[in-house]
Specification:
- The complex is a heterodimer of chains A (338) and B (482).
- By secondary structure, chain A is mostly helical.
- A two-stranded antiparallel ribbon of chain A has the order 1-2.
- In chain A, helix 1 packs parallel to helix 11 and helix 7 runs antiparallel to helix 8.
- With 482 residues, chain B is mostly helical.
- Chain B has a domain of 245 residues.
- Chain B is built from 16 helices and six strands.
- A two-stranded antiparallel sheet of chain B has the order 1-2. Chain B has a two-stranded antiparallel sheet with strand order 3-4. A two-stranded antiparallel ribbon of chain B has the order 5-6.
- Chain B is globular.
- The termini of chain B are far apart.
- In chain B, 50% of the residues are buried.
- Classes of the chains: A mainly alpha (338), B mainly alpha (482).
């Protein structure tokens, strides 16, 4: 594997890591307003309290790695999606500070405001991620100068909007699976109901999106013929999805959660397979697409960064796992909670 | 009305970076203080230290969250508003950014969870280790970002390569890029600025408690340790700042000339302006008070050799002189004030009369905005003084914009940032104020409760039904389950 493909793969891993980890944080946010009691809302926020921040670093690192490894992709996508990225930033800001501020004051109005902004921020951010993925799959109007040539409205086509909704449904389901692990008693029972509902909505949207993709998005399947082993992931994806209702039915929270993690990983993988070796597909002329070679940094930079990644990542993964272990188990509200 | 994309993009960058930079200096500075307080607690088992560490950790957490929320904007903004710049520098910044993400951000945000939420989940030694990692992560992140910024000031270790007619910088020597001529100096200066800010922050709050006669032991301990840090760092800033200014004279002569509003090179020793109103069109300083030959002495170490003035630089390469001059002079003036304040306070502390000097304590309470201003105007000097270049000598700011972003889009986002940041700033002050009024929690003799876990459960039960969960957070902190 050459350096360009290594960084293409690593970006995919970072994206999958982000989607899995922050996915349940965002999912908890999407579901936040569905509980009404103050104590329950605190349990929700504190279920992700210690870890959401570290999870969001995966996005920061993904963005940094994209800037570093594929500066043209970073520049084109971020400036082309200007308004969408600004909305995403505002959503992420509100989600972050809502958690920090919400429980600092007892007043009901104060808490309702931050509850609302937490849920809205989480939902909007998830939706925009989905829209971005949908646009990547459908291709974007990229000119010969590697610049985006459309307007913001070009990004709001039916397919990206559909993927946006699928993203919200996926993360909501993932969040419900996570909350099942972190809650107990009556609250857990209600979460168990939500797991079913979220799974149902997810399944409908997933099937619909898949059908739409197969019919309307030629990009999605072009690599399947060339690399037949990809079908193995398709099979794993079906098994993971099928395992979710089974695990929910048996009340085995960990299995349900692991299955939704696997589902998200597989979906991210499919996006990577669809694009490979491109990162941004030009809908104007395929020759103008940005790929892992024409949009990349020099071999020297890619090599230095690979060494940095090899040096740092083992530590990151080790202590991240250790920190997750420290905060395992049911949420207990205490004096250090939000 | 014709909107100017360049002006708007710069305004947005200034707004978002200045707002963001309210938070990192305190994160970096307080990190060091938390490490020392927790170390003292582990060594002495003195509960006051634990109490202090917990109090400052909570302030740290609020501050950190704001830093994260506003920091992600900065990372995105290179791409959204400065796409051409991103294409130009990506190859060089790449390694610095990758290192920042992997070595710094993961470290601080991961271990912060343990530091903030893990007091009763891990052993004290492990907690201390986590605090060290957070403090280290905060310093690491400053290293990489200052290196990247310094490369923009004094590019090194690269070559210019053309791809289909588009120029970009590509790295040739990683270590030369890392240790470019200004990075070490500037990093030292940035860190000193952070420690001064954190010291004044702690002294301000502690002085307030002392004046109100609350948490007196805690406040005295905090004030004294911050005073030591503040005094050392304020003095160091003077020495280091002098070295750095001399460096700027050789690496970025236009910036130095603008900082000092030094318009004419002349043939003899150059004067140093203490005050004055620089006038770019007339090319002179109005109403100025200048010390003859001092600038030559500071730059060259003699009284005769003239310092390069703006007349040696072609007009289109001048930075905005007035903004650079004022911001630099405000920073230096504040730096001098910090030295005076900390030396006077240290003197009284040594004499043992500091706690009775109410005027001086009030001075420290009210001084809290000053180190923030000093940090901000220092960066204004650095960034405005680099203009009209975004990468010094290589890429002009006006050529670095995004091609697919319009002025209208940028104006809209500025307005939204303005509203949102104003709201956040108000809320942040409110929450901070609340925490300060609440003060540190009294130390708990946790060694004496063998039935600690039982008490915890009982406390939680009581909380679940009673008032403490409807008034959690700080309000609940005052009622101790133990």
């Amino acid at each position: 594997m050459d350096l360009n493909l290594f960084w293409f793969a690593l970006l995919g891993i970072l994206l999958a890591g982000y989607a899995i980890l922050d996915g349940f944080d965002l999912g908890v946010g999407i579901l936040h307003l569905f509980v009404r009691k103050d104590e329950e809302r605190r349990i929700f926020m504190n279920s992700i309290g210690p870890i959401w921040d570290g999870n969001e670093v995966w996005l920061v690192t993904f963005g940094g790695a994209m800037f570093a490894a594929f500066p043209d992709v970073y520049a084109t996508v971020f400036s082309g999606f200007y308004t969408a990225f600004m909305l995403l930033l505002f959503a992420l800001i509100f989600r972050a500070v809502s958690m920090e501020f919400r429980s600092k004051r007892p007043a009901a109005g104060w808490r309702h405001f931050w509850d609302g902004s937490f849920a809205a921020g989480s939902t909007l951010a998830t939706f925009l991620f989905g829209v971005a993925v949908g646009n990547a799959m459908q291709g974007m109007p990229i000119g010969p100068d590697k610049e985006f040539q459309g307007t913001t409205m070009d990004l709001l086509r039916p397919y990206p909007l559909l993927v946006g909704m699928l993203a919200v449904a996926t993360f909501a389901m993932h969040g419900a699976n996570f909350l099942h692990l972190k809650t107990e008693g009556d609250l857990q029972k209600r979460v168990h109901h939500w797991q079913w509902r979220c799974f149902g909505i997810f399944l409908v949207l997933y099937l619909f999106t898949t059908a739409y993709t197969l019919v309307e998005i030629p990009l999605a399947t072009r690599n399947f013929g060339r690399h037949p082993w990809v079908w193995l992931v398709v099979l794993l994806n079906f098994l993971a999805i099928a395992n979710i209702p089974r695990a929910i039915f048996q009340g085995r929270g960990t299995y349900a959660f692991v299955s939704s993690c696997a589902t998200i990983a597989a979906l991210t993988f499919f996006v990577g397979v669809a694009l490979f070796p491109e990162l941004v597909h030009s809908s104007l002329n395929p020759a103008w697409s940005l790929d892992a070679y024409n949009a990349a940094s020099s071999q020297k930079t890619l090599g230095i960064m690979r060494n940095i990644a090899f040096m740092g990542l083992p530590f990151v993964l080790t202590y991240s796992a250790a920190i997750f272990w420290v905060f395992r188990g049911k949420v207990k509200l205490g004096k250090f909670s939000y | 009305m014709e909107l100017d994309l360049l002006a708007l993009s710069r305004l947005q960058f200034a707004l978002t970076i200045m707002f963001h930079y309210l938070f990192p200096p305190l994160t970096i500075g307080l990190g060091g203080l938390m490490v020392s307080l927790e170390y003292l607690f582990l060594r002495t088992k003195d509960q006051e230290y634990e109490m202090a560490a917990k109090f400052w950790t909570r302030i740290f957490a609020v501050n950190f969250a704001m830093g994260v929320a506003t920091g992600i904007v900065m990372e995105f903004q290179f791409g959204t508003n400065w796409a051409t710049y991103s294409r130009f520098v990506g190859d060089v910044f790449g390694s610095a950014l990758a290192a920042e993400g992997i070595f710094a951000f993961f470290l601080e945000s991961g271990f912060l969870a343990v530091v903030v939420f893990g007091w009763d989940r891990v052993k004290p030694g492990t907690h201390f280790f986590a605090t060290c990692m957070v403090a280290m992560g905060a310093v690491f992140s400053s290293i990489w970002i200052v290196v990247a910024n310094s490369w923009q000031q004094t590019p090194a270790g690269f070559k210019l390569v053309s791809h289909n007619g588009v120029m970009r910088a590509e790295i040739t020597d990683f270590w030369a890029m890392l240790f470019n001529p200004s990075s070490v100096h500037r990093l030292a200066h940035v860190l000193i600025g952070c420690y001064i800010l954190a010291a004044f922050f702690v002294m301000s709050i502690s002085a307030y408690y002392l004046l109100k006669n609350r948490h007196v032991n805690f406040a005295r301990k905090s004030f004294t340790s911050a005073l030591v840090l503040g005094t050392v760092m304020s003095l160091l800033a003077l020495v280091q700042g002098d070295v750095q200014t001399r460096k700027v004279a050789t690496t970025q002569p236009a910036k130095l000339a603008a900082m000092e509003a030094h318009f004419e090179t002349g043939t003899n020793g150059s004067p140093l302006h203490l005050f004055g109103l620089p006038d770019e069109t007339e090319g002179r300083v109005k109403y100025g008070i200048a010390i003859p030959r001092l600038l030559s002495f500071m730059v060259h170490g003699n009284l005769r050799e003239p310092v390069h003035g703006l007349d040696k630089i072609s007009r289109e390469n001048w930075p905005p002189v007035a903004a650079t001059f004022y911001s630099f002079h405000v920073m230096v003036g504040l730096g001098m004030l910090f030295i005076v304040m900390t030396l006077v306070a240290s003197f009284y502390r040594w004499r043992g009369t500091l706690w009775h000097k109410r005027w001086l304590l009030w001075g420290f309470v009210l001084a809290i905005p000053l180190p923030y201003i000093a940090n901000q105007v220092g960066w204004v000097t650095a960034e405005v003084g680099r203009q009209p270049w975004i990468v010094y000598g290589l890429l002009r700011t006006k050529d670095a914009l995004s091609k697919s972003v319009t002025a209208e889009q940028t104006l809209t986002s500025i307005i939204l940032f303005g509203i949102i940041y104003a709201l956040l700033f108000a809320v942040w002050l409110y929450v901070l104020n609340d925490k300060i009024h609440h003060g540190p929690d009294p130390a708990q003799p946790h060694a004496e409760t063998p039935a600690g876990s039982l008490a915890d459960v009982a406390g939680l039960r009581a909380g679940a039904g009673g008032a403490s969960l409807t008034m959690p957070g700080d309000a609940a902190d005052s009622e101790k389950p133990h």
